[in-house]
Design brief:
Helix content is 10%, strand content 46%. The strands form eleven sheets. The chain has a 22-stranded antiparallel β-barrel. Strands 10-15-16-13-14 form a five-stranded mixed sheet. The radius of gyration is 33 Å and the shape is globular. By secondary structure, the protein is mostly beta strands. Helix 9 crosses helix 11 (415-429).
Length: 1014
């Protein structure tokens, strides 16, 4: 009885105590800034395991007491912590911040770690930045988004490749491109015209040695890891459509070209000074005023459609994407059509110990392209016809190739007046196209041997087949012009069929453990074995002579055999075969103490097929460390949400000797001969390559110190990195005596260094329930310096190019006569002589190193993101500073020798006379204008600031879509390359070339898009 009474009394006092700290049901709704409920958000009582998820209406219920804190977490939004009050209702609004969520992890092919644990310099770009953009290539979308990543696109051909460098040029003659990896598969090339950008989930750019050394022989120039979207377990089927349509046009230029009236007036004036230009324009010519850019260019339409399916059961999830895109080129007759299919599957067993995944990505693209950009062929390069053609030439005078030939032979037209007509004929009678099929297949399987050990394998294949076809019809002007005596049949066809396959497999065993109180110590390690094998097979055929009765454009019908006039009609053919292989084994180890201190180490051994057995293996390594200062006790209650100091040091290797891709430079260690015609017409052998068995790896060693920070609840966040990257054993041409049969030999000799600073900052100016505004800035400074090169003078110039390099200065430095101005007394141009004086007649001995390079010293971007209720606005600006290029187009527009030869710039009107001594151009009778060509007179500042991207749109609220049963709808308008501020006169200051001439201009694009979620 006594024990029963004691139990009742104890229960009574427990109830009294509980009443003093009473919990009661608290309900609320978790919603977005637009007021939309968020189902599936996790609501946790801070410091406990007590929690729940919101229902389909965003509602939750928890037993809480006043003063308790709950944290609400949902993917794509910032984690939010709130304090419980006396009220039984506690609603929570989450602020969308997809970039913060996705940047909380760092992904490479071999491991995924949280940003807090990362010791390396990695930048990430999410699908939010990539989706729906009207670019055929994802690489163009990354421009200005990542500090230190310099992207220059020198062609407006849809799907054209870009020149990409990360933290400066890492080599002079070797490969300088980063390694690209898609879902664990190393890419065989940097062409991305077959990849649908809407399928991409995130892109991670690995920059320092701590991040890239694990890739060893392929990570010397950085690594770009592309991860595609995948499905979610236990999720209903969702369907999403993204569609865009737009129009592109060529960008503006500042060449100030003449129309016919300008030209006629200028010729009349100029003849008094320069009689050699010929007669004035006739009255008939003056009635014609052709804008040749309208003849060769058009406003180009584009459209892109992608449908994505996402579903998952308990143990299986799938993501499937089907896409179709068409991109017309601004040059008439050029385009890109692309079909893409992707299916990503992930699975697991009931225990979760076995997981696996597969990726199948099939793409087909068809391109009609130009093939003579940058050349000086007046009957081949369309851009010469579009830019240089005389405005008083009438395009209606073109009829067909034969009539054009007769006019040319009779002297009715010459090269100058005939150039655009030659090219109109080429456009009507020839074609150059390419079909590409690309298949990416990848599979991975992982099994947890225990709680601490996991074994995995990832195997992938990148298969690509390219069929290239060029043809010229039998009645083309060029076929008539170049026909030889006895050639009764004309027309030509050339084909190239190429197949390449890259197989890569990686098997690894990984270990993870935690020990000590509260898992104070955490360690992980892994051992890996990787094998890569690649094959390239190529066939080509060229044939002249087809029967016009059976001819078909783009085909090879009407084939004329070789029995008669064998030398004229016999086809030529060739085959080539290349193989490549790499083998590697490596290990990693990591240690973390209390989430405050971390240490990572990597060591890797690589074998390359490019070197002899003595030099085949290279060893690369890295160490990196971090200090999460914000996790220290003395940082409690500070303004810092994140403050991390990190550093890394290590090496990686470059075995791409010639810089021409995976299959190039395979036997430079061996002697090679080629067949040739020798004495008395006999076939013989001649030396084509001297061997260098001592060739070895280029080694890039890099040191990096960085700080990551976030203050005031991450309203200001970013990172700063300082690095130095040095390349030793550069692949350079070592000069030899010609008595050896060659004047140079590829060898490892020389050193180059890149040093720089990178800054990435984002600040949230407004963070309210229905309104947010953030500003961001990305900036990079890179100083390139050639430390040592293999010759007595300490400099290299090939005697023809306008650029070279020398010790103590940057690569691609301009070397030419330095223009000083116009002599006010005689109108001649003046140049600096080698001894520092002035000369009007410079020679090669007066050429100067100008301390200017085509590679920008400063580059980056900045922008803003504004959201108000359902409206959103994004603007991105990109810039490049201290970059120089030679404007060869402007030379042809302003040289007096081209009067009556091609169109001219009105700038020429400011030429020297006795009454205009302060002129921009020398006297038309100046005797030394020929020296302007190849001089700094045409070296232009190519720095620029560009409004790269602008979009404005509206996200409809779910309640507004209930009547059409949609779960999401987003509409927007956007523009690419909208406006550029620059001193560069040409069509695009962003070109990747040191010398710009007759190139395909990159376009300005306006498009409209819609995203629908079912």
């Amino acid at each position: 009885m006594r024990s029963k009474f004691t139990w009742i009394l104890t229960l009574f006092f427990a109830l009294v105590v509980q009443a003093g700290f009473a919990q009661k049901p608290v309900t609320g709704v978790v919603k977005t800034q637009d007021g939309e409920p968020i189902p599936g958000a996790t609501v946790m009582l801070v410091g406990t395991n007590q929690g729940t998820d919101t229902d389909d209406e965003g509602k939750y219920t928890l037993n809480l007491k006043k003063g308790d804190k709950i944290q609400v977490v949902y993917e794509g939004f910032k984690p939010t912590t709130v304090t419980v009050t006396d009220s039984g209702i506690l609603n929570v609004t989450l602020v969308e911040d997809e970039s913060i969520y996705l940047e909380d992890i760092v992904v490479d092919t071999y491991r995924t770690v949280s940003k807090e644990e990362s010791t390396t310099s990695v930048s990430s770009v999410t699908s939010k930045t990539i989706e729906g953009r009207p670019n055929a290539s994802i690489i163009q979308t990354l421009q200005g988004q990542v500090p230190g990543l310099n992207i220059m696109t020198g062609s407006g051909q849809p799907g054209a490749s870009s020149q990409v460098t990360l933290r400066g040029l890492g080599s002079i003659n070797g490969n300088t491109e980063p390694l690209y990896i898609i879902d664990g598969i190393p890419m065989s090339s940097n062409r991305f015209r077959s990849l649908n950008p809407n399928e991409i989930d995130r892109v991670d750019i690995l920059k320092d040695a701590g991040a890239t050394a694990i890739y060893g022989n392929r990570g010397a120039n950085g690594v770009i890891v592309i991860t595609t979207k995948r499905g979610s377990f236990e999720s209903d089927l969702s369907i999403r459509y993204i569609g865009t349509t737009g129009i592109s046009s060529i960008q503006r230029n500042q060449y100030n070209l003449m129309n016919t009236a300008d030209y006629a007036d200028f010729v009349k004036t100029a003849r008094g000074y320069y009689p050699g230009i010929g007669s004035n324009l006739t009255s008939a010519q003056q009635k014609v005023d052709t804008k040749w850019t309208d003849v060769f260019f058009n406003d180009a339409l584009s459209q892109s459609h992608t449908v994505m399916f996402n579903a998952g059961s308990k143990n299986l999830s799938t993501f499937t994407s089907v896409g179709y895109s068409e991109y017309e080129g601004t040059l008439r007759g050029t385009d890109l059509k692309r079909f893409s299919f992707r299916t990503n599957l992930d699975g697991k067993n009931n225990s979760g110990r076995l997981t696996y995944g597969t990726t199948i990505n099939a793409n087909f693209s068809r391109s009609n392209m130009e093939n003579s950009a940058g050349t000086n062929g007046v009957n081949q390069n369309y851009f010469l016809g579009a830019f240089q053609s005389l405005p008083y030439t009438d395009p209606n005078s073109y009829t067909n190739g034969y009539d054009l030939l007769q006019d040319y032979l009779s002297g009715k037209i010459n090269v100058a007046s005939g150039m655009p007509l030659f090219l109109m004929d080429k456009r009507a009678t020839s074609g150059f196209g390419q079909d590409e099929f690309k298949l990416l297949v990848n599979g991975n399987i992982n099994y947890k041997l225990s709680d601490k050990f996991k074994i995995s394998n990832q195997t992938g294949v990148d298969y690509q087949t390219i069929n290239q076809n060029s043809w010229t019809r039998y009645d083309a002007f060029n076929e008539w012009l170049f026909a030889v005596d006895g050639q009764d049949y004309r027309g030509s066809v050339a084909t190239i069929d190429e197949d390449r396959m890259v197989f890569n497999t990686n098997t690894n065993l990984r270990y993870e453990d935690a020990f000590g109180a509260d898992d104070l110590h955490r360690v992980s390690a892994g051992v890996f074995v990787e094998y890569l094998k690649a094959h390239l097979r190529s066939k080509n055929m060229q044939k002249t002579g087809f029967d016009p009765i059976f001819w078909s454009d783009g085909g090879a019908t009407g084939w004329i055999g070789g029995e008669e006039n064998y030398q004229l009609y016999a086809p030529t053919a060739g085959m080539s075969r290349f193989d490549a292989g790499l083998f590697s084994y490596f290990g990693t180890a990591s240690y973390d103490y209390a989430r405050r201190y971390g240490l990572d180490a990597t060591i890797r051994r690589d074998a390359s097929f490019r070197f002899t057995n003595d030099n085949r293996w290279g060893t690369f390594w890295s160490v990196s460390a971090r200090w999460n200062i914000s996790n220290e006790k003395f940082m409690e209650n500070s303004v810092f949400n994140e403050l991390k100091l990190r550093g890394s040091y290590g090496s990686s290797g470059n075995q791409d000797i010639t810089g021409n891709g995976m299959f190039s430079g395979a036997q430079l260690y061996d002697t090679r001969f080629t067949s040739t015609i020798g004495y008395n017409g006999e076939t013989g052998l001649s030396l084509s390559q001297l061997p260098n068995p001592n060739l070895q790896w280029e080694v890039i060693t890099q040191a990096n110190i960085g700080v990551d920070f976030g203050v005031w609840n991450n309203r200001l966040r970013g990172s700063v990195d300082v690095y130095q990257k040095q390349t030793d054993d550069l692949y350079l041409e070592n000069p030899l005596s010609a008595i050896n049969g060659s004047s140079s030999l590829n060898a490892n000799f020389g050193t180059m260094r890149n040093s720089g600073v990178e800054l990435n900052v984002t600040g949230e100016i407004i963070r309210k329930e229905n309104t947010s505004l953030s500003l961001r800035f990305v900036g990079a400074y890179n100083k390139n310096e050639v430390v040592e090169i293999p010759n007595e003078t300490g400099e290299f110039w090939d005697g023809q190019s306008l650029v070279g390099y020398r010790q103590g200065h940057m690569v691609n430095e301009f070397y030419m006569a330095e223009y000083l101005g116009i002599n006010p007394d005689n109108g001649n141009m003046m140049f600096r002589s080698k001894d520092g004086g002035v000369t009007e007649n410079p020679n090669d001995g007066d050429y100067q190193w100008l301390g200017k390079s085509s590679m920008p010293v400063y580059q980056g971007g900045f922008g803003l993101d504004l959201q108000h209720k359902g409206w959103f606005l994004t603007a991105d600006f990109t810039y490049a500073l201290d970059a120089w290029r030679y404007d060869n187009d402007y030379y042809f527009f302003t040289a007096p020798t081209f009067i009556k030869q091609n169109n001219l710039s009105n700038d020429m009107r400011d030429y020297w006379t006795k009454d205009n001594r302060d002129a921009s151009f020398p006297a038309l009778t100046g005797s030394n204008f020929s020296y302007a060509s190849g001089s700094s007179f045409y070296l232009q500042d190519a720095s620029y600031l560009r409004l790269r991207y602008l979009t404005i749109g509206y996200n409809f609220k779910k309640k507004d879509l209930d009547f059409v049963k949609l779960s999401g709808l987003r509409v927007y308008a956007q523009g690419e390359n909208l406006y550029t501020w620059t001193k560069w006169r040409g069509w695009d200051a962003e070109s990747s070339r040191s010398v710009d001439y007759g190139q395909y201009p990159t376009p300005r694009t306006i498009s409209f898009g819609v995203e629908v979620q079912f």
